[in-house]
DNA sequence: CGAAGGGTTGAGGCGGTTCAAAGCCGGTGG
DNA sequence: CCACCGGCTTTGAACCGCCTCAACCCTTCG
């Protein structure tokens, strides 16, 4: 079945490699960051801790060492859009101007490496890594623009869940483990509000879509943020990407 | 009035400098590209010409020398999302994997510089420029995510139009030229379909919003793609950003 | 003049939001 | 151990903004 799907896929849907830099799993990884050098400092934030606010002077560049971070922007009336979700190995806080263009908050307890802008400029290794991360970041943002601009609520939630299923859904999709079973457990570490703000929806819509998927037996919920996908292939087809 | 608005602006709305790398004007600029070296080739595309398709092998990196280019992605059922609009000085076709993650089409007659990936790797100058462009690209994509995820149709169209008004709307907004008049003429060089696909709307909605703005005398239309903004400050307030 | 290809306008429907109420669950204190 | 509280989540009902579908208009070009 996955082979068949690959054959049918038009060029445009090939995996372009954007996922290779950043992990599928925001958590649980033991990433050995490129920034773990002398000149870098470390800092641990609790879950839902603020790393910096939009508009703060951009003095440091950060790398997620362990945990997960979201970047978001606010409109003056309080509307929020979460623009990126980052995991181990991802960089953030790389500024075009003098200040950060987004706020950064942790989702889970998170260890970050920090390095000053000046020191980052000086290191070729870091520059290289930065470029690589930026490129994959851009491609992820392209995907997210498609999601926000053109996908239905069901497709958005399905795409979101698929993000956290390892080795599935991309060009290199490994297909179901066995003939009879195609399950996977994903842990979100995000509140409904955070998910909604990432997907451009409301809390209620996210909740309704998840309930609907439960009703259709695509997923079951072990805890509120721990979801068992009963049929990965089925969920994948709900993303709109295939 | 503009000074007053700046004072009221919370930190979060400061211009973060994302616009500095790329021009406000996709057209009419005589940008002397960093790629205009020996090893680069040039190519001119007519308006609405295809530079490459999503999924094509990513052999070259491009720079817009003159004209404008849009990058878009398609879903298999034909839904399209334009993810970026580029002008002189902007780079595109920088791949994370082996293939392009978007398609690239010109909006107007466009001159591009091309350079092979290998040659790009070799030049520090190009690497530097590439990094700078990527960073501003990321910030523009952040803004666009907010637009797609959280803004109303009116706010989207207003934001879109403000993009093409020079020196207005950002942190460095110069304010109205005179006490009595606050006009500006923008030329879109895009069909309604392209605008709609960029803003995550339908043709009809774009058309209706523009008609509504005409009715409210915020804009007048000199030609279908040539719009006179009668009240820049007024339009700016419709963007939702202030 | 007629055809073709955008663009505009109108009517109706639907998906997602809004507002409101109830449910669930973990934590705290009696 | 259970009652209570607060925060998050779920569910329901009504509404509304944008989409869909269809007709019409305008401009361009043969």
Work out the strand percent of chain A: 15-25%
Radius of gyration of chain A: 18 Å
Taking all residues together, what is the mean pLDDT of chain A?
Answer: 86
What is the topology, as strand order, of the major beta sheet of chain A? 1-8-3-6
Largest interface: A-B, 63 and 62 residues
What structural class results from the helix and strand content of chain A? alpha+beta
> Tally of extended strands of chain A?
11
Instruction: Give the ordered list of helices and strands of chain A.
Output: HEEEEEEEEHHHEHHEEH
Oligomer: homodimer
User: Can you tell me the CATH class of the largest domain in chain A?
Assistant: Mainly Beta
Report, as a whole number of angstroms, the end-to-end distance of chain A. 13 Å
- What count of helical segments of chain A does DSSP give? 7
Low-confidence stretches of chain A: 1-31
Overall description:
Chains A, B: This is CRP/FNR family transcriptional regulator, anaerobic regulatory protein. Chains A, B: It holds the Pfam family HTH_Crp_2. Chains A, B: One of its GO terms (molecular function) is DNA-binding transcription factor activity. 2 copies of one chain form a homodimer. Chain A has 242 residues and is of the alpha+beta class. In chain A, helix 5 packs across helix 6. Chain A has helices spanning 2-8, 117-122, 124-150, 153-162, 192-199, 203-215, 232-237, and strands at residues 41-45, 50-52, 60-66, 69-74, 80-86, 91-92, 103-106, 110-116, 184-187, 219-223, 226-229. Chain A contains 7 helices and 11 strands. In chain A, the strands form 3 sheets. Chain A has a 4-stranded antiparallel beta sheet with strand order 1-8-3-6. Chain A has a 4-stranded antiparallel beta sheet with strand order 2-7-4-5. Chain A has 2 domains: 20-147, Sandwich (Jelly Rolls); 152-237, Arc Repressor Mutant, subunit A (Orthogonal Bundle), CATH 1.10.10.10. The two termini of chain A are 13 Å apart. The structure holds a DNA duplex (30 and 30 nucleotides).
